[in-house]
Amino acid sequence: MPLGRRRPLLRGALVGGTAYAAGRRAAHAQQHEADQQAAIDQLQAQQTAAPVAPTAPTAPQPSAGSALLDELARLGELRDHGVLTDAEFAAAKARLLGT
């Protein structure tokens, strides 16, 4: 086969292969953009969803440690020194214990 006849075939293969690769890249880019848009839409839907009502804070349990006991002791001292009345002490203690 003469050399002149091979070059058009090689050129055609090169152009066809390049076009195929470019088409695959474009399809991949479109899919990537679609995936990104879907993720953005999902995040926006989550943000605009009805806010969840905050739950009431749980009261610390007596087994929570020395911090609760220290606070109760401090309130008792304030009551003993006359800074707090018995009613104020009872209210503060109830608030601490969550009752």
TrEMBL record:
<feature type="region of interest" description="Disordered">
    <location>
        <begin position="25"/>
        <end position="66"/>
    </location>
</feature>
<feature type="compositionally biased region" description="Low complexity">
    <location>
        <begin position="36"/>
        <end position="64"/>
    </location>
</feature>
<dbReference type="InterPro" id="IPR006311">
    <property type="entry name" value="TAT_signal"/>
</dbReference>
<feature type="domain" description="SHOCT">
    <location>
        <begin position="70"/>
        <end position="97"/>
    </location>
</feature>
<dbReference type="Pfam" id="PF09851">
    <property type="entry name" value="SHOCT"/>
</dbReference>
<dbReference type="InterPro" id="IPR018649">
    <property type="entry name" value="SHOCT"/>
</dbReference>
<protein>
    <submittedName>
        <fullName>SHOCT domain-containing protein</fullName>
    </submittedName>
</protein>
